[in-house]
């Protein structure tokens, strides 16, 4: 894969992931009480599709960094591995939640979560996403594949995710901002990640290929 193709593939998959995630996030705020199973399954389906694009974005970014700056390929590999781990862990938690919904004939009580999924969505997800964003931001700063401000912004978002790791000490009520699966820990962080993906993808698709020497 050459540099131009790696850039386009990274940008396109990032854009697709961002669009899917931006479609998913509003579904969390449609109902003030317990959402019906159809709502939960719809957002899970969109989220699974988005995560597929996120996985492809992470792997494409790894190749993009390797092509743009071979001496910094290790950073791209770190980003790709962290992105892969984040995607897989979130897919597992989505599968557990979907299984619980399908097995139930009643609307989902937002104060009840399948045992363990709120840790996967929350603390574990925040840690893995921080690793992914931190390595992507560092790669941008080291290789200049995007403007310096983009790297700094990405590193800043990684720190925000790290700040939500201790949320597991504050219960698992989704209506609470800083709970293990609270709307700040999950929905807000997901929205910020969506907008980051969108901006990064547009920058990759619009920025011309660097001149080769």
From TrEMBL:
<feature type="transmembrane region" description="Helical">
    <location>
        <begin position="182"/>
        <end position="205"/>
    </location>
</feature>
<feature type="transmembrane region" description="Helical">
    <location>
        <begin position="40"/>
        <end position="61"/>
    </location>
</feature>
<keyword id="KW-0812">Transmembrane</keyword>
<feature type="transmembrane region" description="Helical">
    <location>
        <begin position="82"/>
        <end position="103"/>
    </location>
</feature>
<feature type="transmembrane region" description="Helical">
    <location>
        <begin position="118"/>
        <end position="141"/>
    </location>
</feature>
<keyword id="KW-1133">Transmembrane helix</keyword>
<feature type="transmembrane region" description="Helical">
    <location>
        <begin position="12"/>
        <end position="34"/>
    </location>
</feature>
<feature type="transmembrane region" description="Helical">
    <location>
        <begin position="150"/>
        <end position="170"/>
    </location>
</feature>
<keyword id="KW-0472">Membrane</keyword>
<protein>
    <recommendedName>
        <fullName>DUF4386 domain-containing protein</fullName>
    </recommendedName>
</protein>
